[in-house]
Every structure is written in structure tokens, then in C-alpha cells.
Design goal:
Blueprint: E1 5-11, E2 14-19, E3 23-29, E4 34-37, H1 46-51, E5 58-61, H2 67-70, E6 79-81, H3 86-91, H4 96-105, E7 112-114, E8 120-122, E9 127-132, E10 141-145, E11 150-154, E12 160-162, H5 171-181, E13 190-193, E14 200-201, H6 204-216, E15 224-228, E16 231-237, E17 252-255
Parallel strand pairs: 4-5, 6-7, 11-13, 12-17
Antiparallel strand pairs: 1-2, 2-3, 3-4, 8-9, 9-10, 10-11, 13-14, 15-16, 16-17
């Protein structure tokens, strides 16, 4: 199928939802509730998919306001997101393909409820802590699953970071955001990001920070052009640490000149 949903249990009570290898979401099932982290593009009825796994109440959280992380919200009554991304998310509702599909199937986006750094989602035996990380978008967040030492990173920490898009912070501001949350390396062992198919070592944060710092320092003489739907940007490769497990080896930060 063109937009098939692949579901994989990564470890007990933690599931990867991979929508046609376009974007990824995650389901964490606690003793009392389940939390869906990002809802992808909305091609599949995620509520029905979750109900085949658990009948517990579902909390939906969006790591940021881009379409490939929020459009699946249409299958739920409520979703949490940092309010700093509300305007960004609202701007995508009228994309013709999405608006037409909603009208055709009688779906609509639920309102966003605020979530912010310091908030805690208690699922019963599993606890998610919220941390802000402005960069990829102004309202991007991380979710730390304390008991399993997993950091859900959305698009903020990954192998192909887009910082060239409208609404992203400056690279200098992003480095400050990373510096502020580097202590999470001591609280987590693994990262699950918004386009992953498995775990990355937590050291990906440090590697990404080094790459962003190099851009700030002007160490970009070998950077190549990057063509994307918004035009031409640049891409800066960053190195990964030897002896650590990563889901891919080629890693770049895309940015504007």
C-alpha cells in the first residue's frame, strides 16, 4: 500500500509507528494510560491501530507543529503541543490536499492543548518529562521516558536536521538550546526521533551540537548545496562517535547561507 502503517514493538510497551517511511510516531503504554508521540501525516486511522494494542485512555502529544507530525490528530479529540508552534501548525490546515481529505472523510483537527517544559505525563509506571528545545521550530519539545531512559526527540535531534525552513531559530540560538539540555545525556541512553526506525545512541545529541557549532564558527568551506522543495540551502556533515549504535552513518544539518 502507498501509505502503509508499519508497527513494531521496540521493547515491551513501546511501539514504533512508521507511516510509509515518511515519518515516525511512538506509542508508550503505561499501566493506566497510553501516550502517542506524534501522529504523522494522517494517512492511517491511528486510533484504530492503537485500539488493536491497548484499550487504555490515549494522550496525544505533538513534538512540533509540522504537517508530518500533526495531521494524524484528526483521529483524536485532543492533542498537546507547545503553544509557540500553534501559529505554525494553524498555517498548514488549509493545505488543499489535507483540507480536501478532511472534507471528504468528515474529519477535522482538534484544538491544541498547551504543554510546556516542566510538565509531566504520568501513564502509570511510566513517566514522560517535557523539555523545550527551540531550533527546528520555536515550539519543539523533547519527551524523556524516565523509567526506560529513552528520549523522544521529534525532528530536533536526528541525522538529517532541517534548519533552513521558515520558523527555525538561528544556528546560534539552537546551540544554546542544545547546551541547555545536554544534561539529558545522563538521564537517557537512547534517542527515538521523528524519522527513525530504531534506537540511536544518546551521544547523537553531542554529535549534532558539534556540527551546529562548526556552522556557527564558519567551518563550512566544504559544505555542498542541498536542494529541497523550498529552494537551495547548504548541508553540513557532522561526525558520529565510534563504537556507538546509530541507525545511519550519513548525518547532516541543512541551513541557509
Amino acid at each position: 500500500m502507498e501509505h502503509e502503517l508499519f508497527i513494531k514493538e521496540l521493547k515491551p510497551s513501546i511501539y514504533l509507528f512508521d507511516e510509509a517511511h515518511m515519518s515516525s510516531g511512538y506509542l508508550v503504554v503505561g499501566e493506566k494510560k497510553a501516550c502517542l508521540i506524534d501522529t504523522m501525516n494522517g494517512y492511517n486511522n491511528l486510533y484504530e491501530a492503537i485500539r488493536k494494542i491497548t484499550d487504555k485512555p490515549i494522550v496525544v502529544v505533538n513534538t512540533h507543529g509540522h504537517p508530518d507530525h500533526i495531521f494524524g490528530n484528526v483521529y483524536f479529540d485532543k492533542a498537546f503541543m507547545n503553544p509557540a508552534d500553534n501559529e505554525l501548525a494553524e498555517s498548514f490546515k488549509n493545505i488543499p490536499e489535507f483540507a480536501d481529505a478532511c472534507k471528504k472523510y468528515g474529519l477535522s483537527m482538534p484544538p491544541f492543548s498547551p504543554i510546556d517544559e516542566g510538565d509531566i505525563i504520568d501513564l502509570g509506571g511510566k513517566t514522560l518529562e517535557i523539555y523545550n528545545i527551540p531550533g527546528h521550530t520555536q515550539g519543539s519539545i523533547l519527551l524523556l521516558l524516565k523509567e526506560d531512559r529513552i528520549l523522544f526527540a521529534g525532528d530536533s535531534i536526528n541525522h538529517h536536521l532541517w534548519m533552513q525552513i521558515p520558523g527555525a531559530t538561528t544556528m546560534e540560538e539552537f546551540v544554546k538550546s542544545l547546551d541547555r539540555i545536554m544534561f539529558l545525556e545522563e538521564k537517557a541512553d537512547f534517542i527515538l526521533h521523528g524519522h527513525a526506525n530504531d534506537f540511536d545512541d544518546i551521544s547523537l545529541i553531542r554529535c549534532l551540537r558539534q556540527g551546529a557549532l562548526e556552522i556557527c564558527q564558519g567551518k563550512t568551506q566544504d559544505d555542498k548545496p542541498y536542494n529541497w522543495f523550498g529552494g537551495i540551502a547548504l548541508q553540513h556533515p557532522f561526525s558520529l562517535e565510534e563504537g556507538k549504535h546509530y541507525t545511519q552513518t550519513d548525518s547532516v544539518i541543512c541551513y541557509n547561507r
